[in-house]
Amino acid sequence: MNSTLILKNVNKKYEKSNFAIKDISFSVPEGSIVGFIGENGAGKSTTMNCILNVIRRDSGTIEIFGREMTDEDIDIRENIGVVYDSNNFPEYLTAKQLADILGRIYSKWDDFCFEQFLRRFGLPESQKIKSYSRGMSMKLAIAVALSHDSKLLILDEATSGLDPIMRDEILDVLLEFVKQENHSILLSSHITSDLEKIADYIVFIHNGEIILNKTKDELIYEYGVIRCSENDFHNILSEDILSSMKKDYQIDVLIKNRKLIEKKYKNLIVDSVSLDEIMLLLVKGERNARID
Amino acid sequence: MQGLIRNHYYKIVSKLKILLIFIFFTGVSILIFGGREEIPLFAFLCINVIGFPFISSIGLRKNNIDKWNRYILSLPVKRCEIVKSVFATQAITILIGSMLSVILFLTSFLIHGFAFYRYIDVVLLFSSAIGISLIMNAIFLPISYLDSNDRTEAMSIISLIISVAIMLGLIAVINILIEKPTDMQLMIFATGNLVLAIAVFLISCSLTVSIYSKQDC
Hints:
Distance between the termini of chain B: 20 Å
Pfam family, one (chain A): ABC_tran
Number of domains of chain B: 1
Protein name (chain B): ABC-2 transporter permease
InterPro entries (chain B): ABC2_memb-like (IPR025699)
Transmembrane segments (chain B): 12-33, 39-60, 94-117, 123-145, 157-178, 184-212
Radius of gyration of chain B: 19 Å
Number of domains of chain A: 2
Oligomer: heterodimer
Keywords (chain B): Membrane, Transmembrane, Transmembrane helix
């Protein structure tokens, strides 16, 4: 399968804060949605900004549509739609003026398509963006991203701060987008329920490092959590433990290969696990090693 | 670059509506009441050719807080085009300010008669005002890209003061070198002044492109 976006050993360090992303490697296959999750400050936005050349990476390679994108490669950026988490556009503009600007920048800008999205999302054309609610601003950003024949959407926390109904509407639009074979999405979020709904792959970043890169189905169907007493915990082999977290009256143990573990430890109950809980156990628990 | 200049146009119109209205009414007032005197005409020239681009440069400066600046980098535009569009927009504002002043001056001369001592005085005024504006932008815009935080508003005022000082310095040098300059000599000075200011403006644009191309945003 071809990949629209490939990151290999990307490193970037901020000298002032000493925060760094280290050896970031993952890909976004064509026709798929990759969910990029991590807690606040994990390095999601830094990675996104490296992809878009907003910040310069220290080392590593990033290929988009098979090429490394430099400042000169405007033809690559023609095919990328970007949505940031808030205030993508200046408040003094109206949607119509925004279309006027972007129509002169994107060679494949489609005014008709943009107007259709405005109608679909119920966005007023001639009202200043400063009067838009957060949800309306997000919808406008998505309308823009989908109105210039983009092949890759990069959304950085685009659903944060939105109510469930609004998020559901936006997720439906994203699913529609990716139905076309050569369309792909990289969606960063800390709202794991959104990714459980639409993502094909999950990449988990923590403290600037990728600690998980799996298909969503594998995580949902093969990973599990054992909730056991301390005694039972000591009977679990360390090679079977991905991460563990001690709670008041039990220890939660994250495991892989649920069916195998159920056969191995017949006295223990293995529950299914959500992305939320996987994230919690990997971040707050004691991890055994990098999960491959 | 068209789209970027269009973006700047919308920003200037939205932020400077009041100034533009003020310029209009000031012009009308001068035509009705003050066209016989030099000072109101000189003041109008300063507002249009120096004041308007000065305020516009503060609005267009690079601002790390503004997420639209970050979004623009994801568009199919090069960083050099982003910088050039700012400089082009400032050049356009200076040109528009000059044209508005020329229109007012000519209209005032038609209504009230010639208000200045010599024709060359008008040329010198325009040349100096345009020169100040170009040099002010040439100093301020690269600084705003080097250090894009709130201190840059203070830097814009300092840039204006420096550009005025440079212009006054050049005029003082000419007055020292040539005791009673002829109109032709003053015309050469005015032309040279303008050419120098334009050259500094263009060099500043290249420098700013170089600064921005190396930056994280």
